[in-house]
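Quick illustration for those who missed Monday's session on complexes.
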Amino acid sequence: MKLKIAILAGDGIGPEVTREAVNILKAVAEFGGHDFSFTEALIGGVAITAEGAPLPKQTIDIALDSDAVLLGAVGDNKFNHLTPDKRPEAGLLQIRQVLGGYANLRPCLAFAALGDNSPLRREVTKGVDILFVRELLGGLYFGQPRWWNKETGEAVNTMRYTKDEVLRVGRVAFELARKRRKKLTQVDKANVLECSQLWRATIDELKADYPDVTVEHQLVDSMAMHLMNIPRNFDVVLTENLFGDILSDESGIITGSLGMLPSATLGGKVNLYEPVHGSAPDIAGQGKANPLGAILTAAMLLRHSAGLEEDALAIEAAVDKVLGAGHRTSDIARGGAAANATTHEMGRLVHSALSESIDKQQSLHAV
Ligand code: NAD
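Prediction with nicotinamide-adenine-dinucleotide bound:
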């Protein structure tokens, strides 16, 4: 299998965690005899410093010429004085628009070994396996008009959706639910917002095509509470852009750390893969970043852009094994566990767990 992967490591801990994810992809290529190529390009603060823009044209060209884009994180406090359209984060919104992916998949999987890591009780988080499907190209983040008049002290953002935008992401969510536990929870604020009423009506219409999937609707405010109370009740959770951003970050509480959460954005010209967390300037350059979110993101890349489901599962199992053996970066060193691994050590441990499991599989095939 041949795969051209664009690497946009970005700022802060972005390069640190991306390096570990790339090492895992290289291992999969080597073990499986695949031909993966990696081309690095600039995005975010490093791109502003080098090229004067958060998303240089060369980066766009490299991304569009690839089969998948793996992104680290963007954001650097030294650019906080710039207007939003010039800051590193603008590069992220722009690359999402350029690539055109509208379905942002954010799995929230409670690893058994981290059961005491969450502030929630082990009985609450045990066995949680939620897949958030967040609409990524519409809603408040992109709606026009948008402005802030500092003179009058008034600001406007616009939440706008079309039925087609809801249908296309809705289909992705139904298809995924079909392959999982066949339950879809659509989250909105339909008691107040017309946009949410459009979402609800459209999903109700679409469910006729998926009679095997159970559909429920939840208001976003009570959903925020249910997620912390009864997270096991949820399978696929479908939301518009802003609600999905907030709820999926909240779900970091279940996994124990934001550093554990991967994501994939599908449906556009090229799929985009990025851990959910940001550039974490507070820990950048200290070897403290948890690379597991980025490594699990690499697994999603193999699953959704290469069809290498077995390799994706092997990476997820390797992460589970390393956590089960008690290895912890500082963000997940709670519940009695000590921080005993740097970013690179954690990456190396997953690499060796993966090599061992692949060696075992190969010798089983050989028997
Ligand atoms: P953040 O996700 O960077 O950090 C939030 C907290 O989680 C921090 O305490 C951080 O140390 C910790 N954390 C995050 N990832 C971690 C990891 N892998 N391992 C260990 N700890 C981790 O969010 P923030 O502090 O709100 O934002 C920092 C910068 O990142 C800002 O400039 C923001 O705009 C940007 N940001 C970028 C993205 C992205 O690139 N996708 C997402 C969110 C925020």
